[in-house]
C-alpha cells in the first residue's frame, strides 16, 4: 500500500486527470468519424436495426419465413411431417425464438416442441431447421407463415462502397473532383510565386499599396464575388456560344480566389530569405528572372508545399464555388455536390450516405496525415504573423 | 473516366507551361525592346532603369489581372447592383436596403449569424486553448493533437453527413441508430428530432463547426504557448503560484495577440458559413444564416441580384473592421523590417 500511494504521489493526481481528460477529448473528437466508417462497412439491414456501436456484437431482428407447403409432407406413423429450414437461401443467423403471429415473433422458445393447436406441433432449432407435424393431413396449398427472432452475427463487407461508386455516381464525382482540383492547385502556385518575388525583392512605386490590397482581399467574402461573376460568366458564355459552366471557368475561379492567401504566404517566406544570397547573385549579373528560377523557387519549397496543401484541401472540400460555377449535371458534379444531392434524395439510406461521405473525406485525410507538418507550418505562417 | 483525369493532368501541365512561357517570353521581349549595348553608356543606363521600372509589373501582371477580375471588380459591381432591381438593369435607389430592413427572413438570418458569432469563435478558442495546454504536458500529446486537428481536413459537407448521423431520429418504439438519441433514451429520455427544434437546432449546427475548427485554434495557440519564455513560468513557480494562476496570470496575457488572431480568423469563417446550413437544414426550422439567404435569393425565382447583393454587402460590412485591422497589422510588420 505504501509503495502504491508513493507511486501515485510521484505520478501526481493532477497528471492523471490531465491524461484522462485528454483521453476523453480524443474519444469525443474521434467518435463521429468512427461512426460513419463503421457504418459504411456494415450490412445494409443491420444499419437500420441497431446502432453502429453495437456493430461488433450480434444484432437481433425480427424476420418472417414460410414453412414448406403441404404437398411436401411425409407420413410418419400417425403423423404427417414437414421438415426443412426456416431460412431462405443465403440468409443466416441464429434463431432465438419464433411465433406464428406477427405481433408475437417470440412466442415460443427454440428446441422445444411448440403446440400450435389443432394437433399441430412445431419445433425450430437455433440453426433454422424445423420439424412441423400434425396428427392429420395438412390442408391448403401454401406453407404456413411463421415469424422469427433472429440474431445475426456482425457482417462486414465493402458492398456499400461498390454500390455508391458504381450506382450512385460517386465514382464519376470522384473523377470530377480530381479534374477540378489538380489544375486549380498547381497553377496558382507559379503565378503567386512570381508576384510574391516582385513584392519582396523588387522595388517599385505602389508596392506597399499592393501588399495592403492583397492582405485586405484575403478576408473578402466569396459572397461578394458570386453575383457579378455569374453575370460575367453568362455573358462570356453567350459571346463564345458555349456553356457558362466549364472546367476552365472553375479552374480560373479557384486560382483567383486562392491568390491573395498564396501571395501573402509566399511573400512572407520569400521576403525572409537571406538577403546576402540574392544580393550576391545580383552582383554576379543574374537577372531577376534567373534569381527567381534558380535561387528563390527551390529555397521556397516548404512554403510552396504549405500553400499547395491549403489550396488542395480548400478546392477539394469546396461546395459553393462548384455549384455556382460548375454545373450540377452528372458529368460535372464534384464529390461535395454529389454528397449534398444524395442527402436530399437518399435521406435515410445511411449505408449509401456513410460510404459516400467516407469516399469524399478519404483523399483529404490521406493528404492531412501524410503532409501534416507542412500544413501546420503554413497555418502558423498564415495566421500568427498577421492574419 | 480515365481520359478525363488525363486531360486534367494535361491541363495542369499546359497551364504551368503557358504560365512559365509567359514569364520567360515577357522577360525576353523586355530585354530585346530595351537593349543594353556597350557603345552608348547613357542609353544603356537609361534602358536598364526602364527595365527595372517595367519588370515588376510583368511579374505581377497575371496575379493582378486575376485579383482584379475575380475580387476587386466584383466588390464594386456588387455595391452597384445593390441599388438596382432583380435583373440589375433598373436603378431602384435604396429599395433593396429597405426590403432587407423590414424582411422577417433577413432579420432571422442576422439573429442567427449573431448567435453563431457569439458561440463558435469563443468555443473554438476556449477548447483549443485548453487542449493545447493539456496536450503539451503528456507524452502522447502529439497523437492527441493530430486527432483533434483531423476534422480540419474534412469538408463541411462530409462533416454534416457525419453529424447528421449522430442526430438521426427514429420513432420512440424503434431502436435508435443516432448516437445522441441512443444516449438520451438510455438515460430514460424521449428521442428528439434535434435538427428541427427551433432555436436550439442552431447550436446543433454550430457543434459541427466547433468540431472542425477547434483543431485550428489548438495548433496556433499551442505554438504560441511554446513561445512563452520559460523564465516567466519558473519565476511564478518560485513565487508559489499554482497551475491555475500560472495559466491565467502568466500564460494567457502573453498570448493575447495570438488569441485575437485565432478569434478573428474563426469569426470571418463563421460569417461565411454556408455549406453546413445548406446540407443540414437548407435554412429550414429557423436556421437560415446570411450566406445561405444570399445564395437563396441569387437563384430563387430566377434570381434577384439586387437583394442578394445587399445581403452580400452586409457580410462584407461585418468583415471590414477585421480587414482594416489586418492591413494595419501587416503595414506595421513591413515597417518594422
From TrEMBL, chain A:
This is Carbohydrate ABC transporter permease. The keyword Lipoprotein does not apply. PANTHER family: ABC TRANSPORTER PERMEASE PROTEIN MG189-RELATED-RELATED (PTHR43744), OSMOPROTECTIVE COMPOUNDS UPTAKE PERMEASE PROTEIN GGTD (PTHR43744:SF4). Its main location: membrane. It is found in: Cell membrane. It is a multi-pass membrane protein. It comes from Rhizobium straminoryzae. GO terms for biological process: transmembrane transport. Keywords: Cell membrane, Membrane, Transmembrane, Transmembrane helix, Transport. CDD domains: TM_PBP2 (cd06261). GO terms for cellular component: plasma membrane. The chain crosses the membrane at residues 12-31, 173-197, 209-230, 250-270, 291-316, 352-371. Coiled coil: none annotated. Belongs to the binding-protein-dependent transport system permease family. Pfam families: BPD_transp_1. Residues 174-371 form the ABC transmembrane type-1 domain.
UniProtKB/TrEMBL annotation, chain B:
The chain crosses the membrane at residues 6-25, 57-81, 114-135, 147-166, 203-225, 246-271, 308-327. Keywords: Cell membrane, Membrane, Transmembrane, Transmembrane helix, Transport. InterPro entries: MetI-like, MetI-like_sf, UgpAE/MalFG_permease. PROSITE patterns: ABC_TM1 (PS50928). It comes from Rhizobium straminoryzae. This is Sugar ABC transporter permease. It is a multi-pass membrane protein. SUPFAM superfamilies: MalF N-terminal region-like, MetI-like. It is found in: Cell membrane. GO terms for cellular component: plasma membrane. It holds the Pfam family BPD_transp_1. GO terms for biological process: transmembrane transport. CDD domains: TM_PBP2 (cd06261). Residues 110-326 form the ABC transmembrane type-1 domain. Belongs to the binding-protein-dependent transport system permease family.
Amino acid at each position: 500500500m505504501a509503495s502504491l500511494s508513493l507511486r501515485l504521489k510521484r505520478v501526481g493526481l493532477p497528471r492523471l486527470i490531465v491524461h484522462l481528460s485528454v483521453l476523453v477529448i480524443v474519444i469525443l473528437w474521434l467518435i463521429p468519424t468512427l461512426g460513419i466508417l463503421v457504418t459504411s462497412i456494415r450490412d445494409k439491414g443491420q444499419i437500420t436495426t441497431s446502432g453502429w456501436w453495437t456493430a461488433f456484437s450480434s444484432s437481433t431482428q425480427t424476420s418472417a419465413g414460410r414453412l414448406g407447403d403441404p404437398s411436401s409432407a411425409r407420413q410418419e406413423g400417425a403423423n404427417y411431417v414437414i421438415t426443412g429450414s426456416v431460412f431462405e437461401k443465403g440468409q443466416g443467423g441464429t434463431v432465438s425464438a419464433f411465433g406464428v403471429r406477427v405481433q408475437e415473433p417470440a412466442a415460443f422458445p427454440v428446441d422445444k416442441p411448440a403446440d400450435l393447436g389443432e394437433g399441430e406441433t412445431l419445433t425450430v432449432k437455433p440453426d433454422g431447421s424445423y420439424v412441423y407435424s400434425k396428427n392429420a393431413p395438412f390442408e391448403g396449398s401454401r406453407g404456413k407463415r411463421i415469424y422469427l427472432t433472429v440474431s445475426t452475427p456482425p457482417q462486414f463487407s465493402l458492398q456499400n462502397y461498390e454500390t455508391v461508386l458504381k450506382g450512385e455516381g460517386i465514382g464519376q464525382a470522384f473523377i470530377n473532383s480530381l479534374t477540378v482540383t489538380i489544375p486549380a492547385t498547381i497553377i496558382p502556385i507559379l503565378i503567386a510565386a512570381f508576384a510574391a518575388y516582385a513584392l519582396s525583392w523588387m522595388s517599385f512605386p505602389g508596392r506597399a499599396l499592393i501588399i495592403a490590397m492583397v492582405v485586405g482581399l484575403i478576408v473578402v467574402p466569396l459572397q461578394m464575388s458570386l453575383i457579378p461573376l455569374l453575370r460575367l460568366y453568362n455573358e462570356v458564355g453567350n459571346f463564345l456560344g458555349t456553356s457558362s459552366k466549364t472546367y476552365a471557368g472553375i479552374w480560373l475561379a479557384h486560382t483567383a480566389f486562392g491568390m491573395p492567401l498564396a501571395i501573402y504566404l509566399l511573400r512572407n517566406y520569400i521576403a525572409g530569405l537571406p538577403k546576402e544570397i540574392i544580393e550576391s547573385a545580383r552582383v554576379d549579373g543574374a537577372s531577376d528572372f534567373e534569381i527567381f528560377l534558380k535561387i528563390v523557387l527551390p529555397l521556397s519549397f516548404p512554403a510552396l508545399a504549405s500553400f499547395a496543401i491549403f489550396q488542395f484541401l480548400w478546392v477539394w472540400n469546396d461546395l459553393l464555388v462548384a455549384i455556382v460555377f460548375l454545373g450540377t449535371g452528372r458529368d460535372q458534379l464534384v464529390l461535395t455536390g454529389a454528397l449534398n444531392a444524395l442527402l436530399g434524395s437518399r435521406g435515410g439510406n445511411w449505408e449509401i450516405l456513410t460510404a459516400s461521405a467516407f469516399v469524399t473525406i478519404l483523399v483529404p485525410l490521406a493528404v492531412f496525415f501524410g503532409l501534416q507538418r507542412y500544413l501546420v507550418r503554413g497555418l502558423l505562417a498564415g495566421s500568427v504573423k498577421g492574419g | 473516366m480515365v481520359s478525363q483525369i488525363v486531360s486534367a493532368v494535361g491541363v495542369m501541365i499546359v497551364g504551368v507551361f503557358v504560365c512559365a512561357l509567359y514569364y520567360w517570353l515577357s522577360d525576353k521581349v523586355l530585354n530585346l525592346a530595351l537593349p543594353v549595348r556597350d557603345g552608348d553608356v547613357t542609353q544603356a543606363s537609361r534602358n536598364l532603369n526602364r527595365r527595372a521600372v517595367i519588370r515588376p509589373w510583368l511579374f505581377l501582371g497575371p496575379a493582378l489581372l486575376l485579383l482584379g477580375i475575380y475580387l476587386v471588380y466584383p466588390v464594386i459591381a456588387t455595391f452597384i447592383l445593390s441599388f438596382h432591381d432583380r435583373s440589375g438593369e433598373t436603378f431602384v435607389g435604396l429599395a433593396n436596403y429597405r426590403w432587407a430592413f423590414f424582411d422577417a427572413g433577413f432579420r432571422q438570418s442576422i439573429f442567427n449569424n449573431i448567435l453563431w458569432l457569439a458561440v463558435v469563435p469563443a468555443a473554438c478558442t476556449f477548447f483549443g486553448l485548453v487542449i493545447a495546454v493539456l496536450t503539451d504536458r503528456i507524452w502522447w500529446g502529439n497523437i492527441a493533437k493530430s486527432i483533434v486537428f483531423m476534422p480540419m481536413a474534412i469538408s463541411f459537407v462530409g462533416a454534416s453527413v457525419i453529424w447528421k448521423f449522430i442526430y438521426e431520429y427514429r420513432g420512440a418504439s424503434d431502436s435508435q441508430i443516432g448516437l445522441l438519441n441512443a444516449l438520451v433514451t438510455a438515460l430514460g429520455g424521449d428521442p428528439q428530432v434535434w435538427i428541427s427544434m427551433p432555436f436550439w437546432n442552431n447550436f446543433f449546427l454550430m457543434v459541427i463547426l466547433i468540431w472542425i475548427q477547434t483543431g485550428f485554434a489548438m495548433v496556433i495557440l499551442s505554438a504560441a504557448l511554446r513561445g512563452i519564455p520559460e523564465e516567466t513560468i519558473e519565476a511564478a513557480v518560485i513565487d508559489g503560484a499554482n497551475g491555475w494562476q500560472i495559466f491565467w496570470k502568466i500564460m494567457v496575457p502573453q498570448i493575447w495577440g495570438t488569441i485575437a488572431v485565432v478569434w478573428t480568423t474563426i469569426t470571418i469563417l463563421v460569417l461565411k458559413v454556408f455549406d453546413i446550413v445548406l446540407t443540414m437544414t437548407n435554412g429550414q426550422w429557423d436556421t437560415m444564416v446570411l450566406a445561405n439567404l444570399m445564395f437563396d435569393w441569387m437563384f430563387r425565382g430566377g434570381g434577384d441580384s439586387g437583394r442578394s447583393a445587399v445581403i452580400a454587402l452586409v457580410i462584407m460590412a461585418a468583415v471590414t473592421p477585421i480587414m482594416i485591422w489586418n492591413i494595419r497589422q501587416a503595414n506595421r510588420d513591413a515597417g518594422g523590417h
